[in-house]
Model the fold of this input.
Amino acid sequence: MAYRRLFLFLEGDDDERFFRAVFFPLLRRRYDDVFPVQMSQLTKKKIADWLRSVEAMKANYLYVRDLDRHSCVTAAKNALLETHPRLIPDRIQIVKAEIESWYCAGIGSGKLADSEIATCLETEIVTKEKFDAAIPGGRVNRIPVMAEILESFDLEEAARRNSSLRYFLQKRLAVE
Done:
C-alpha cells in the first residue's frame, strides 16, 4: 500500500488545536501522516510554494478556511480561488462561521455545559468576538476555555449542531 500523507492548511493556532484534538485521530485512520500548515503567517507566494511541493510529492491536502465576511460557501471558495489559483476546489473546506463555531457546537458534559458559551443554538454564526464575549467569568485568555471544551468534546453533538462540521465529517472522513 502506498504511503498516504495529508497536509492540512489551517488558519492559525486555534484551528490547529481543534484539528489535532478532534480530527487527527480520525484522519490517521486514512493517512500515514497528517501535517498541519498554518497559513496566518504565510505570504501568497509561500502558500503557492507549499501547494507546489504537496503536488510534487503526490500528497493530498485540505485547505480549511473560515466563512468570514462572505455571504455563502461558494463566495468564500471563489475568493480563495482568485487569490490562490493552484487550489483544487474540491480540497477547500469552509468553516461556518469561524473555527470557534465548531468548538461551541461540540461542548459536551464538562464544566462549560451550562455556560453561555454552550447555549448558542445557532453555532454557524459564532465568531471569535461572540465566542470571547461568552467566555465564563470574562476570562481574557481563551486558550484554557478552548482546551476545556476539547477535553469533553462531543463530536456527535457537534455534527448535529453545525452543518459545515457535519459536511466535513461526511465528505472528508466518510463518517455518518
Summary: The beta strands are 5-10, 33-38, 60-66, 92-95. The longest helix spans residues 13-27. Residues 5-172 form one domain.
